[in-house]
Write a structure and sequence with these properties.
CATH superfamily of the largest domain: Response regulator
Shape: elongated
Order of helices and strands: HHHHEHEHEHEEHEHEHEHEEHEEHEE
Helix content: 40-55%
CATH class of the largest domain: Alpha Beta
Strand order of the largest sheet: 2-1-3-4-5-11
Oligomer: single chain
Radius of gyration: 27 Å
Strand content: 15-25%
Length: 364
């Protein structure tokens, strides 16, 4: 049986050159290409059709590398990616980087080694994430939810600053006097932008001094819990908290409940992201909703255009968020403030002897 080695010997080239010419995966001179094809015909070489089909399938695979698979934001985004991918005969491989730069780097190197068609990435860091292993192989990358600072790539996100500004302004509108923020890591563009939106709302309301009432979490439930505990331990406890993602909002609500505080009577809460369980909580959670499915679709369309040959400048797609108000901020309905009580301080939870908290009695 004739092999690729026979063709290479007849043409006087390497087997790699034969493979590139017959598969059309690299530019070679017309003279060299003709020489290889002639040698192939003269030797009666038939390429391995199974191997070629496998190579074709691999080149239609997309790698989607997300920062936290436990976050509903990403699980609602992925179907949008898949719909576009499958409609054009592509498959999707999902990788969970877990906000870990080393794991993220491993998945990016794997994507390069497997010669995937493209990568959709939620980068762990705007600076430290290294996409060169895939870009150097000519594999296009689109980022979602977060941006990279030093590489111009197509990216899709919501207007995080505006969404956070809406959330904070809503807390001001329901009468919160001491506003705090549980923000995500400020080294991520998402965390920084949402914190900036919180600051803008305070500045617009003439309350910029409150911008220091901030604790930084890690976009996970436990991080939101610990950050909220720190806020409650301050001399002046907040009566309104903006929490900059859904998982940390769960942690914040748990911390408030453990402290014996009522939401929204003692502390009103607004989250960012609006997962399907937000309306089911007691109280239901006011939240800034992102069009997660649409984000996935837009990212997939950008990636597909790159795969199909678009070589223009990096593009940005910014989608609008929506504030959805629910019981966690409905203070007027659940706990109306009487005019005579307006200046009364909100009671600070006191520590019991066993270290747990109870709510102090309100003045009557």
């Amino acid at each position: 049986m004739t092999t690729i080695f026979d063709v290479a010997r007849r043409a006087g080239v390497s087997t790699a050159t034969v493979s590139r010419v017959l598969n059309g995966t690299a530019e070679v001179t017309a003279e060299l290409a003709a020489k290889v094809r002639a040698a192939s015909q003269e030797t009666g070489y038939e390429p391995n059709r199974v191997a070629r089909r496998l190579r074709t399938q691999r080149s239609s695979v997309w790698s989607v590398i997300i920062s936290d698979i436990r976050n509903p934001f990403f699980t609602e985004l992925i179907p949008g990616v898949e719909e576009v991918a499958f409609s054009r005969g592509n498959s999707v491989i999902l990788c969970h980087a877990g906000e870990d730069l080393a794991r993220e780097a491993t998945y990016l190197r794997l994507a390069a080694a497997e010669a995937v068609a493209g990568v959709i990435l939620s980068p762990a860091s705007p600076v430290q994430t290294d996409v060169q292993p895939v870009l150097s192989r000519g594999i296009p990358v689109v980022t979602v939810d977060r941006r990279l600072s030093d590489v111009a790539l197509d990216h899709v996100l919501v207007d995080n600053i505006h969404g956070a500004q809406q959330a904070t302004a809503h807390l001001i509108s329901v009468g919160c006097r001491r506003l705090a923020c549980v923000c995500g890591p400020l080294e991520t563009t998402t965390g920084a932008d949402r914190y900036a939106g919180y600051q803008r709302a305070l500045l617009a309301a003439g309350r910029a001094a409150e911008a220091r009432e901030v604790e930084v979490g890690d976009f996970r439930e436990e991080g939101g819990y610990l950050a909220t505990q720190k806020l409650l331990a301050r001399r002046e406890m907040p009566d309104g908290i903006f929490v900059s993602n859904n998982m940390m909002a769960l942690g914040a609500l748990r911390a408030l409940d453990d402290a014996g505080l009522s939401v929204p009577a003692d502390v009103a809460v607004v989250g960012f992201d609006d997962p399907v369980w937000a309306p089911l909580l007691k109280p239901s959670l006011t939240a800034v909703a992102q069009p997660n499915y649409d984000i996935g679709q837009e990212a997939a369309r950008l990636l597909l255009s790159r795969i199909e040959g678009y070589t223009g400048a990096a593009r940005e797609v910014v989608l609008a968020p929506t504030l959805r108000t629910r019981d966690s901020t409905r203070r007027t309905a659940l706990n109306p403030v009487k005019p005579a009580e307006a200046a009364d301080p909100v009671a600070v939870p006191r520590l019991r002897g066993d270290g747990s908290r109870r709510r102090a009695a309100r003045p009557r």
